[in-house]
Write a structure and sequence with these properties.
The protein is an alpha+beta fold and about 1000 residues long. Among the domains are: about 80-245 and about 260-375, Transferase(Phosphotransferase), domain 1 (Orthogonal Bundle); about 385-415, no CATH class; about 880-980, Serine Threonine Protein Phosphatase 5, Tetratricopeptide repeat, CATH 1.25.40.10. It contains 40 helices and 13 strands. A six-stranded antiparallel β-sheet has the order 2-3-4-5-7-6. Strands 8-10-11 form a three-stranded antiparallel β-sheet. A two-stranded antiparallel sheet has the order 1-13.
């Protein structure tokens, strides 16, 4: 990273000042004095810094006595851990900071670490500047702004992690060889687009110059070092406001439009002045006049700096006369521009554009950065003269009169017949074939599934045509986009069309299992929005130019679309078989975007089978996507990783890590909607797996909020979010609230999938479970209906069969139908073993339920065996502190007590009580454990007073509806104990 090895400006901080520069209102004499201070301060900085560049960023005040030069810091040894990063080598060092190449083992990528050196009189100011730089750059997501990944602390040092880009500064790039003026304008235009993005985000860079533009060896142009950035309309220095870094680092990263530090009772770091009042921030020669005058700054100040940089790049000298900071400042404030060199070949029209951007008054400059960049592209020689346009118009009118305007209308009509591109994809014959295939299955939900599929595919087809037409018109009618951009967008949309075609071809011959997944398959089609940014990816990583190689890449994309269509339609085996060869060939190739997408699809296919290699495949997809800036692919890979281990209580820590990485990327790219909702829901499942239903509830509510914020249509996905929310409420004993969410989910499933769909069956099972706990008479009919749908529509080894049977058996136990409950729960155990294997912890719930009904049937020895098995299965996978263990432990204790082994019962019951008292569990579960321990204590003649207290506490836990029998049993027991005493 050449620019970091040789340019320490971003690490340098200004020395402490003894006073402040006079305010402009003090008159010309005060301003002249301030300009002299500039000169002295710059000389002092050159003496202090061992390394430097031609024009360091400057924060100017009255100079104190010259300090002794700082001692050269020793570089961090290779292998040092800085946060989660591993240091590889030092790239450069400046007066206040160092830059290292490092490795991120979590994402398997190289990064650049910028560290603030310890010590120094201006350390706190430098810390604030580094934090402000990270916050400002992380707020931006643009191809021409250097990405920031992270901010943290290493001992007493602050660091930020940035993308490691091999390249050099614009100044170094200009020195390498003579650059034609068109090439210079092209490079600076890209940097200007990064500035425009900052302005759109409400930021002013405030220090744009040749040293803060990176020209990568891969052709990328990136703006960086936002250490002096401020909000638009601010920038006038004031008294600094301290920020507690530890509080900052512990705060959750905000959404881009949120007030990031509203809860810290201070101003955001990018608004916090790095120095005391009266200082001038920026670099002489590039600073706008209003920066010298301490006026509020807008994007016009950056426009001035941009034009000063462009002048330097075009002519090899400063735009303003004079040498040294003071002289440059005087010339800037007086507007004394240098005349162009006599031997320059830069056209006069370019010079006019630059001069306007260098106007003293912001109001006389270009209206915006976008207007300036547009003016730089508006080369007079490339436009048709007005007379020619008039002649063309006259010729066109004559052609119309003569009836010979067909060639003119052909170009205009080019964009109005794109609907025919979907012939054979979603035309009338294909729609009829899909409808007949659905109805031929005879499934009760087939008609509703067809209606949902047709509605969704009609919308997708319409959106596809609209996007293709817009791209066409922007290029061939309005001229707003280049043909290169049109080509890139069309290629992306063509890949979406291939996927669309592959899916409808599969649906046209669908069987019952494919109809079951059809609505979700349509919702799973690749989104169209990323095609709008396809040109950026193509610009960064051009596709193969050689015709045979280019054709092969497109053929692989077509195969990839087919693999995805197979997966989302439920044909998992065929989908995996199609994905493997594409991923294998893409891995061996050199076109990284194809490799990233192929690995993502392969990882998704492997995830569907529970294949543990899915994790590494998805990680590789994320790394590859990150290398080429495919944010969409990387985000999907990270979300898939979170989902992959969401149910695995042994991998909760890893799941949280993937969640935070994915969330940070979605926030930076301002991504909302389906993907964000899926991520939040997966995070909720992680919390459920670790036994934290309160946090799980918050995540599921966040998921629903993300879905609704994006105004997405009602779908089975939203219904699933409602189900997940209901599960978290049930786990807290809030059964009335859970029932309401289950009812909403059930209604949404029926509307979108039809009454006989297996998802409807699963919702009925959840509904019936809550009704049973609440003691409602409609619980059993609801559960029986749900189980019937599940058994009729799901394959024999599907995991939810065991869940449904467990719910029905538990409800039968509650109403005293014990023999039927036993038969149903034996089937539940067998179903769980068949779906997951006999050693899987998912077998434990059915074992516990079977143990409870065996206790009711007075078979405590058999019950103890089932409770012990459940305990063993859970503890091996979940560890010894998971709250789900309490169910098995309570059953063990009760079985031992009924076997006359009350002394032995105390150990598991006390352990169960500790788990349930330290976690959020339903109050009836806690009451159950307390009453079981009370009876064991009483039977073993241990601490009678404590036994009574536990029983009285248990009474409070059974106060809700549905627990009348349990409450009567405890009260009877307490009454008997009282009469004996």
């Amino acid at each position: 990273m050449e620019h970091l090895k040789r340019s320490p400006t971003e690490e340098s901080a200004s020395p402490p000042e003894a006073g402040s520069a006079p305010h402009p209102e003090e008159g010309a004499e005060g301003l002249a004095c301030a300009l002299d201070v500039l000169e002295l301060e710059l000389q002092r900085a050159h003496a202090v810094l061992r390394q430097g560049v031609d024009e360091p960023t400057h924060v100017v005040g009255a100079p104190p006595p010259l300090p002794s030069p700082p001692e050269e810091s020793l570089p961090l040894p290779q292998g040092t851990a800085v946060g989660r990063y591993i240091v590889r080598e030092r790239l450069g060092a400046g007066g206040m900071g160092e830059v290292y190449a490092a490795f991120d083992p979590h994402l398997n990528r190289r990064v650049a670490l910028k560290l603030l050196l310890p010590g120094g009189a201006d350390r706190n100011q430098a810390r604030l500047r580094l934090m402000r730089e990270a916050q400002s750059m992380a707020r931006l997501s643009h191809p021409h702004v250097l990405p920031v990944f992270d901010i943290g602390e290493h001992g007493d040092q602050v660091f930020i992690a940035l993308e490691l880009v091999e390249g050099r500064t614009l100044r170094q790039w200009l020195k390498e060889e003579p650059r034609p003026w068109r090439e210079v304008v092209q490079v600076l235009t890209r940097a200007g687009q990064g500035l425009a993005a900052a302005h759109a985000a409400g930021l002013v860079h405030r220090d744009f110059k040749p040293d803060n533009v990176l020209v990568g060896h891969d052709g990328r142009v990136l703006v960086y070092d936002f250490g002096l950035a401020c909000e638009q309309g601010t920038g006038s220095p004031g008294a600094p406001v301290p920020v507690d870094l530890s509080v900052l680092l512990s705060a959750q990263p905000p959404a881009p439009d949120a007030d990031a530090f509203a809860d810290l009772h201070t101003r955001e770091p990018r608004e916090t002045p790095v120095t005391r009042a009266g200082l001038i921030m920026g670099t002489p020669g590039y600073m706008a006049p209003e920066q010298y005058r301490h006026e509020p700054l807008t994007g016009q100040a950056d426009q001035f700096s941009f034009c000063a940089t462009l002048h330097y790049a075009l002519y090899g000298e400063h735009a303003f006369e004079g040498h040294g900071a003071g002289a440059l400042a005087r010339a800037t404030l007086a507007g004394r521009l240098r005349p162009p060199p006599r031997d320059s070949d830069v056209p006069e029209w370019v010079r006019r554009v630059v001069r306007r951007g260098l106007s003293l008054s912001p109001s006389e400059r270009h209206a915006s950065m976008e207007a300036l960049l547009e003016a730089l592209q508006d080369e007079p020689g490339a436009r048709l003269p007005r007379k020619v346009l008039m002649a063309v118009a006259a010729a066109f009118l004559a052609a119309v009169v003569a009836g010979a305007a067909s060639q003119w209308s052909q170009r205009q009509g080019l964009c109005h017949h794109l609907g025919t591109s979907l012939d054979g994809v979603w035309d009338a014959p294909r729609q009829d074939a899909v409808r007949q295939a659905f109805l031929a299955t005879g499934q009760p939900y087939a008609a509703a599934a067809w209606a949902g599929v047709k509605s969704a595919l009609d919308g997708y087809a319409s959106a596809w045509v609209d996007r293709q037409r817009h791209a066409c018109e922007a290029t061939f009618l309005t001229g707003q986009a280049s043909e290169e951009r049109f080509t890139a967008r069309t290629a992306c949309l063509e890949r979406r069309r291939s996927e669309f075609k592959a899916l409808t071809a599969l649906l046209a011959v669908a069987d019952a299992s494919e109809v079951e997944h059809a609505v979700e398959a349509v919702r799973g089609l690749s989104e169209l929005e990323p095609c709008d940014e396809a040109a950026t990816i193509t610009e960064r990583v051009p596709p193969p130019r050689e015709p045979a190689a280019a054709a092969r890449v497109e053929a692989l994309y077509t195969e990839l679309a087919r693999a995805r269509a197979l997966r989302i339609s439920g044909q998992y085996v065929a989908g995996l078989a199609a994905a493997i060869p594409v991923a294998t060939e893409a891995r061996a190739g050199t076109y990284a975007p194809l490799k990233a997408e192929a690995l993502l699809e392969l990882g998704q296919q492997q995830r569907g089978f529970g294949d543990p290699t899915a994790e590494h495949t998805l990680l590789e997809a994320a790394w590859t996507a990150d290398e080429v800036g495919l944010d969409e692919v990387r985000a999907e890979a990270l979300v898939a990783l979170t989902q992959f281990i969401a149910y695995d209580s042994a991998r909760v820590a890893d799941g949280h890590d993937w969640f935070h990485q994915a969330r940070a990327l979605l926030v930076r790219t301002r991504r909302q909607g389906r993907l964000s909702a899926q991520l939040e829901s997966a995070h909720g499942l992680l919390y459920s797996a670790q036994g934290d239903p309160i946090a799980a509830e918050a995540s599921q509510r966040n998921a629903l909020a993300e879905w609704d914020k994006a105004a997405l249509a009602e779908s089975p996905e939203r219904a699933s979010l409602l189900r997940h929310l209901g599960l978290t409420l049930s786990a807290q004993g809030r059964h009335e609230e859970a029932l309401a969410e289950y009812q909403r989910a059930h209604a949404a499933y029926v509307r979108t999938l039809g009454a006989g769909h297996p998802r409807v069956g699963s919702a009925l099972v959840n509904l019936g479970g809550s009704l049973s706990v609440l003691g409602r008479p409609e619980a059993l009919p609801t559960l029986r209906e749900g189980v019937a749908i599940v058994e009729r529509t799901l394959p024999p080894r599907h995991p939810f069969r065991a869940v449904a049977l467990d719910a029905l058996g538990s409800a039968l136990t509650r109403v005293g139908q014990r023999e039927e409950a036993k038969r149903v729960l034996l089937r539940a155990v067998v179903a769980a073993e068949g779906s997951r294997g006999p050693q899987h912890p998912d077998v434990a719930p059915a074992c516990d339920s079977l143990g409870r009904v065996l206790l009711e049937l007075e078979h405590p020895a058999e019950a103890l065996a089932h409770f012990t098995r459940a305990m063993t299965l859970r503890e091996r996978m979940m560890g010894g502190k998971h709250p789900e263990l309490a169910s098995s432990l309570t059953g063990q204790g009760e079985a031992l007590r009924r076997l006359g082994r009350s002394h032995e019962a105390l150990v598991p019951l006390e352990r169960a009580l500790t788990l349930r008292e330290t976690h959020a569990v339903p109050p009836e579960d806690l009451a159950d454990t307390r009453f079981a321990l009370a009876r064991a204590l009483m039977d073993s003649r241990r601490d009678m007073r404590h036994a009574r207290a536990l029983a009285e506490q248990a009474v409070q836990g059974f106060q809700g509806p549905g627990h009348q029998a349990a409450l009567a049993r405890i009260q009877s027991w307490l009454g008997a104990r009282h009469s004996r005493e």
